[in-house]
Amino acid sequence: MKGKIFLCSNILWAVINFRKELIIALTEAGYLVSVIGSDESFSDSISLELEELNIEIIRVPLNRSGRNFLQEFVYFLRLLRIFRLSEPDLVLFFSVKPNIYGSIACRILKIKYINTINGLGSGIIHNNLTSWLIRRLYSISLKASCKVLFQNNDDKAYFLERKLIMAEKAGYVPGSGINTEKYNMPVKRISEKRTFLFAGRILKDKGIYEYIEAIKVLKRESNVDAEFLLGGIIDKSNPSSVSFDEIKQWESMNIIGFLGKTDNIKDFFEKADIIILPSYREGLSRLLLEAASCGKPIITTDVPGCKDLVKDGFNGFLCEPKDVKSLMGAMGKAINASASELLKLGANGRNLVKDKFSDKIVSQVYLDQIKECLKRN
């Protein structure tokens, strides 16, 4: 055995969906792997996938949205106790609270760790007391990190400009890695009536309101003959969440067709010609990676974490964030494009993922960083 590696994320669902190939790569390389996360949003199929990996699972409850000091402190103490008793050789942290509290625990215990910043999130980028506190906690927690990996260069620049980390600690990883064999679909015939799909967590910050408003205007002013779908998770723990009642109201007004949620995003992709994500900002959108790998043309915003995956006119169309008119323009381009043009956009997207964002590329980044970190005294 080369060493004991822990992966620590906010929820186990994220570990199995986004880090499964990395876990397999680590075990095949000879590391003993354990994962830490909460059971939130768990399903039987996800539980089965975790069991099939034959790794240690450590469940730690976590309130992702709350700012209750006592709950945060209890979470920190639980991680501290786990690391003290288990003595891992290295911990990989993903998502905000594990990155902050888990890293501080590792600093105290002198355990090596590597951080991945999946995205900045709304909490850090505003100029208020909460943002200042998060930045301060990041500067403390990341100080002893072997490496801090960012999924886009804008996020890395944000941390460097504010001196939250030293330049030599900053690195890049092209997302969470896509298994392009798993995320592959037969070429779908595109009908004259275009079908658009907004999928993922249904949040204001993902641009859901802009999507709804764009549909309303297109239907009212352009009499567009298209279908508009919405599917994904209603994340009640997120302050940006949209309520189920609101979604049902949109459905009753015949604005969208609501698909609910799924453990297999390909079931949603099967119903759509074009994938839409008018997000305000991402780390590196997992949804867009999966959609591109499945050969779907994409409409998204010209912001960090989205523009890194979509080149306007090459594998989709870009629009401005928080701009309904700009989003409508991009949707109009997709409606007016020929079926062959849309298929070409989808094929270009798949090739882009295979060349730059595959799970093999991402796993190798982590394997190299882990090897380098473990060599240090």
Written overview of the protein:
With 377 residues, this protein is an alpha/beta fold. The chain folds into 2 domains: 193 residues, Glycogen Phosphorylase B (Rossmann fold); 163 residues, Rossmann fold (3-Layer(aba) Sandwich), CATH 3.40.50. The chain is 45% helix and 19% strand. It contains 15 helices and 13 strands. The strands form 2 sheets. Strands 3-2-1-4-5-6-7 form a 7-stranded parallel sheet, sandwiched between helices. Strand 2, helix 3 and strand 3 form a beta-alpha-beta unit. Helix 9 packs across helix 13. It is globular. The model has no long low-confidence stretch (mean pLDDT 91).
Instruction: Give the DSSP E fraction (strand runs of 2 or more residues).
Output: 15-25%
CATH class category name of the largest domain: Alpha Beta
Number of DSSP strands?
Answer: 13
Tell me the strand order in the biggest sheet: 3-2-1-4-5-6-7
In helices, the fraction of residues equals 40-55%
User: pLDDT average, as an integer?
Assistant: 91
Report the radius of gyration as a whole number of Å: 21 Å
What is the element string, with H for helices and E for strands?
A: EHHEHEHEHEHHEHEEHEHEHEHEEHHH
First-residue to last-residue Cα separation: 19 Å
Provide the domain count: 2
Query: Any idea what the CATH superfamily of the largest domain is called?
Result: Glycogen Phosphorylase B
**SS content category:** alpha/beta
The CATH topology of the largest domain is Rossmann fold
Question: Globular, elongated, flat, extended or rod-shaped: what is the shape?
Answer: globular
Count of helices? Answer: 15
- Low-pLDDT runs: none
- Provide the CATH architecture of the largest domain: 3-Layer(aba) Sandwich
Largest β sheet strand count, sense and barrel closure: 7 strands, parallel
